[in-house]
Amino acid sequence: MFLYLSEISALLTNIETLQETLCKRQPVDFNLLKQKELSLIEQIKEVSSQKFDEEEKQLIEVEKQIEECEIAYAFWQNEYEEAQEKLTQVTNNLSNLNSYEANLKLMHEEQIRQEEDKLREEIVKNIDRRNYLQKLKMSKLNEKRTKK
Asked: What sign for the dihedral angle of Cα 94, 98, 104, 108?
């Protein structure tokens, strides 16, 4: 943009210089002066047009790059969201597995307690049975002694 303004400024300076030169000469052909001025104005328009076209091309290129970046961002955003969903699923699965493991452990502990209780009952029954048998044996022995 600065280059564009400096070129216009240089052309305007040329116009002023031409006008001054032409005014110093005698006789002045204003038609010729007007034609040169129009010619310079045309050159200014041409330079302006070229600069505008170049800037427009650059702008289009930048817009394309922005669009590509937006597409890439959308793609990676989608990838990120999918990864987040998978991470959430894995976290939920891990939590479920931990709960399942804890429940299995509790069930196993309960089963062990029940088996221990059964074994205690069995032991008590066996002790009671042994005591009964000992009493019975003692009573038979006492009967035999009393008979003698």
From this structure: positive
CA dihedral of 72, 76, 82, 86, whole degrees rounded to 10:
150
pLDDT tens string 23-53: 665 565 678 778 888 888 888 888 888 888 8
Q: Among positive and negative, which fits the CA dihedral 111, 114, 120, 125?
A: negative
**pTM value?**
0.44
Tokens at 63, concatenated? 């817009």
Give me the helix-helix angle, 30-147 and 2-24, nearest 10°.
Answer: 170
3 phi and psi angles, rounded to 5 deg: -60, -40
End-to-end CA distance of the chain: 140
Domain encompassing residue 141: 2-147
Cβ atoms of residues 40 and 14 within 8 Å: yes
Of the CA atoms within 13 Å of residue 122, those in its CB half-sphere come to 6
**Contact status, residue 46 vs residue 28, Cβ threshold 8 Å:** no
Total number of domains constituting the chain: 1
